[in-house]
Design a protein that fits this description.
Helices cover about 5% and strands about 55% of the residues. A hairpin with a 2-residue loop joins strand 32 (about 710-725) and strand 33 (about 725-750).
């Protein structure tokens, strides 16, 4: 077995055409090690083994504890998005959202607590907060991905979980490339909605070349994708206390038994369209000057239709139900006599554009000292249009409408429905029986609207035929960084680095929404222009009538009533957050030898000065029922000091002990920082007369623009043994002492200043004075004007600790007959909690990953499996707000087979590679349940298997 030193491997990789440093740092790093060219082995291995070899060399050479992923060849990572690729790395775990791996957790912290950079510069996400939605970034733009698990002073973007650096190609260090990629994609499930397909495509072009005597390099990647998703979805409303008197004879209903209270289930079809353009221009007119400009543009649009039915069940929909089965405190079967089903034709369109530019200028002041200037800007615009459209057998308020009776059986995928034993059902697919009108009187918020008043039998509550949520997000990030570094001979220190980074960031959310009413109100007409039937056979229902609700909304068909007129939370969740960060750092690199042990590392400190400000609105309901607003602003300034040390001890040939200590931070969530105070008054007579502030009618919710960063003190130790060019074993332990985490706080406020006499009072419909009558004498003012205000605050503590085991084994080391076979495996075991008992978002107790591959004579076969335990996460809830839920975890198996015709001997097929890939081969569902009982299913999503047939042609 050939032994090798890390610096030789690193230089060999650069010579072989794969650069792996970030733009602001690579050229600085390239001069670090003096290499004897006579001993330099140039590594030019492609395919799976080449990717593993390059990634191993990156990991081996770094003084921090890192994970690395290298493209097999430029623009040929094996997955359709960055998320799918890095989710298999040790210590990382992917989170599926609507069928795609999108979120990433690092060491138990989800993407909101992970720093993400592109070529060393902070990258904006396209979500509600700071977290990056990794599935929106195509693999075609990627050369390498580096995950820093331990911090260092020169790393400007940090996270408590770690930092993910996405690195594009450096054209002056890469081989000339001219490549086309094409992929056909199809989902196993037929489209459940008649206006969607279940197939798509992916096309990309990669170009790298050098000009002007190799002083000018150009790289360009263009990618276009249409990717379908199909989903079968069940959502339970929740679980109510069952009435034992409704059980059939012989069925025992113990006290505390719960029963499904209703559901809204659908079939979802989606098409994600993404166009990406990435470009890099690198210019080195002299040996002393290097200039690099890079740009990234992503145009993202996803359209989906969610068609199904919303029905109240036992207790919450009707009291006329019968229990036929109970098991361990859960009603498992029964039937109910009817509910006025709400047919849902919901559509969601998400549009986003990301643009980022960077300019890096590096100048060698002399043989030992280098100065670098880095400028960058980024911008994201995102709009979500989410339309709910209600239809059914007639408008609320009309007598004689038929109700839908059903039987149900609880299963591992939620409730499955069937015919009632005695009552006839209703055909929800009949275009001659379904009206475009809300069958339930759910429009109570429209009570103050004059146009919906004064119609006998049809109050404002009957005027809601739909709703649209349309939040708009705008975010900008500009940064300037100046660094200087040089080689020194200061004892154990070999290099000195220092720099300053200024960053200006602003994010705005405008939370728009509107109630939708059909123009025929209070009458109703049949659904216009139905397009077919949406299939609901996965829950035992034939289907529902389908129509284009987004098209109706866009055409101006509906009467729109702005939700911000009555919903205090609309303005309460509209805000602008701005941050100015000034970071000064200094770092000393360590390079020494003690008793034959080579020691590398770094020690440094960051000082971060922060000025954060927020503007938003205080809201309260006025005497006419409309929202009253008052602009508000708040903020704070502070500084953090972040010391770090990383040490690597090579105590034997290619065997390392690494250790690190440091203080790490994550900036506060944007939605927690909004300054607002949203006042609510509950019109419930018992609460109004209560003198207990905890049970009174007054309450409020507030953000906190003065939140400090989440902080942790971190310790790491790892053992790494590199026993072959593509073989190693590593074990690591880490402990994060969470010294500041954000927690729900509560204070009590006097609301007498917003009290309105004659409005904030009891209804007169409850006998309050005990005289046996209900009249004006029972109209009284609130029993208290004190109520709780809920907000976020600093001060919670906790911990996360864990073990990570990983290994890569080329099986030819076991026996020569196994040449070409290999394994890569990892296991992560985490433990942690917050002092109040809450879970850390994204933490799974155990995560496993295994990849087995074969590569020889042009043939490539790869099978990957991952398993992740349950974890806390969040999902879209009412008004597209984010709600905390529990995800049951996932098991996923993917596979890929391919052939590289470069090994075929057929001259005109040189450069051609074909692959067939299967994703989610076990059709693993996403399941979310009530904590404490995995049978109480809240959400069950099944997405089917996905298949991709692709080719890559390189000139």
């Amino acid at each position: 077995m050939k032994q090798f030193k890390p610096n030789l491997i690193k230089a060999a990789l650069i010579s072989g055409g794969m650069a792996f440093g970030s733009a602001p740092a690579l050229a600085q790093e390239a001069n670090t090690d003096a290499v004897d060219e006579a001993n330099l082995e140039v590594i030019q291995v492609s395919g799976i083994r080449g990717s593993l070899q390059r990634a191993q060399a990156i990991k081996m050479d770094n003084t921090s504890i890192v994970e690395a992923l290298s493209a097999e060849d430029i623009g040929k990572l094996p997955d359709t998005s960055i998320a799918e690729s890095i989710a298999r790395l040790p210590g990382l775990a992917g989170e599926r959202r609507n069928g795609r791996t999108s979120g990433i957790s690092v060491r138990g912290f989800n993407e909101n607590y992970v720093g993400t950079t592109l070529n060393g510069r902070e990258l904006l996400g396209m979500g509600d907060n700071r977290g990056v939605e990794f599935d929106l970034y195509p693999t075609e733009i990627v050369s390498n991905i580096l995950v820093y698990k331990t911090p260092e002073a020169g790393l400007m973007t940090q996270g408590i979980g770690g930092t993910v650096d996405i690195q594009t190609v450096r054209p002056l260090s890469a081989e000339r490339t001219f490549a086309f990629n094409g992929t056909y994609e199809a989902n196993e499930y037929d489209a459940g909605n008649p206006d969607f397909d279940n197939d798509g495509h992916r096309l990309s072009f990669n170009y790298v070349d050098q000009f002007a005597d190799d002083k000018l390099g150009v790289a360009l990647a263009v990618a276009d994708m249409e990717s379908p998703r199909q989903e079968e979805y069940f959502r339970g409303w929740g679980y109510a206390t069952a009435n034992a008197e409704n059980a059939v004879e012989g069925v025992d209903v113990p006290e505390g038994t719960v029963i499904l209270g209703g559901h809204d289930s659908f079939t979802r079809s989606a098409m994600l369209e993404r166009t990406s353009i990435a470009g890099v221009i690198e210019y080195a007119p002299t040996d002393d000057l290097r200039i690099q400009f890079d740009a990234l543009y992503i145009d993202f649009e996803e359209n989906d239709a969610r068609r199904g039915v919303e029905e109240g069940g036992a207790e919450w929909g009707t009291s006329a139900y019968t229990i036929t089965g109970v098991e361990d405190g859960l009603v498992t079967s029964g039937f109910y006599d009817g509910f006025l089903s709400v047919i849902r034709n919901d559509s969601r369109q998400q549009k986003a554009e990301l643009t980022t530019f960077g300019l890096n200028v590096e100048y060698a002041l002399n043989d030992n000292w280098t100065a670098t200037l880095d400028l960058s800007m980024g911008e994201v615009d995102k709009t979500i249009t989410d339309v709910e459209s209600y239809s059914g057998v007639g408008r609320a308020g009309v007598d004689g409408r038929p109700v839908t009776p059903r039987s149900w059986q609880m299963t591992s995928s939620g409730a499955v429905y069937s015919a009632h034993p005695t009552l006839d059902s209703v055909d929800l697919t009949d275009p001659n029986a379904i009206f475009l009108a809300g069958p339930q009187a759910w429009g109570g918020s429209l009570a103050p609207v004059e146009r919906f008043q004064g119609v006998e039998g049809f109050g404002p509550e009957t005027a809601q035929d739909g709703f649209v949520n349309e939040p708009d997000f705008d975010e900008t990030l500009d940064a300037v960084r100046i660094d200087i570094e040089g080689f020194v001979e200061w004892g154990i220190f070999s290099k000195f680095s220092a720099g300053v980074n200024y960053q200006d960031r602003e994010k705005t959310k405008d939370n728009n929404g509107a109630f939708l009413t059909a123009p025929t109100w209070p009458n109703a007409e049949l659904v216009p222009d139905p397009i077919g039937v949406a299939d609901l056979s996965h829950i035992g229902i034939d289907g529902v009538l389908a129509y284009d609700s987004l098209g109706l909304y866009r055409s101006g068909f509906y009467i729109e009533t702005e939700a911000e007129l009555f919903e205090n939370g609309r303005f309460g969740d509209s805000y602008t957050i701005s941050e100015e960060l000034l970071t000064i750092y200094t770092k000393l690199d360590i390079d020494t030898e003690i008793n034959g042990v080579y020691i590398l590392g770094n020690v440094g400190v960051q000082v971060v000065d922060v000025d954060q400000q927020g503007s938003g609105f205080n809201t309260v309901t006025g005497p006419t029922g409309f929202t009253e607003i008052a602009p508000v602003s708040d903020g704070t300034s502070y500084h953090d000091i972040l010391p770090t040390i990383n040490l690597s001890f090579e105590f034997a040939e290619n065997q390392f002990i690494r250790t690190a200590m440091g203080k790490v931070i994550s900036r506060p969530r944007m939605d927690d920082m909004r300054p607002n105070n949203t006042v609510s008054f509950t019109f419930n007579d018992q609460q109004i007369i209560s003198t207990n502030p905890n049970n009174g009618p007054w309450s409020a919710g507030a953000g906190n623009a003065r939140l400090k960063p989440l902080e942790a003190n971190q310790f790491d130790i790892a053992y790494e043994n590199y026993f072959a060019d593509t073989g190693y074993f590593a074990a690591s332990f880490f402990y994060k002492d969470l010294t500041n985490w954000h927690v729900a706080g509560r204070s009590f406020n006097d609301f007498s200043n917003v009290y309105i006499e004659g409005f904030h009072q009891t209804s007169g419909n409850t006998d309050i004075n005990g005289d046996g009558l209900t009249n004006d004498a029972d109209i009284v003012a609130p029993g208290t004007f004190i109520g709780p205000v809920d907000f976020r605050e600093d001060g919670l503590e906790g911990f996360v600790r864990g073990w990570e085991l990983q290994g890569s084994l080329p099986l030819e080391l076991v026996h020569d007959s196994l040449e070409g076979f290999g394994l890569f495996a990892s296991a992560t075991f985490l433990d942690g909690e917050l002092d109040n008992g809450d879970q850390v978002p994204g933490l799974s107790d155990e995560t496993y990953s295994l990849t087995a591959f074969y590569e020889s004579n042009g043939f490539e076969v790869r099978v990957s499996a991952t398993k992740r335990d349950e974890f806390a996460t969040e999902t879209r809830a009412q008004s597209l707000s984010l709600a905390q839920i529990q995800d049951n975890g996932v098991k996923q198996v993917d596979a890929q087979i391919g052939y590289d015709f470069s090994e075929s001997g057929i001259e005109y097929l040189q450069g051609l590679r074909v692959t067939l890939q299967g994703q989610n081969l076990t059709d693993e569902p996403t399941v979310r349940v009530n904590p404490g009982d995995s049978r109480q299913i809240i959400e069950h999503q099944s997405f089917g298997r996905n298949f991709l047939l692709g080719f890559n042609y390189t000139f």
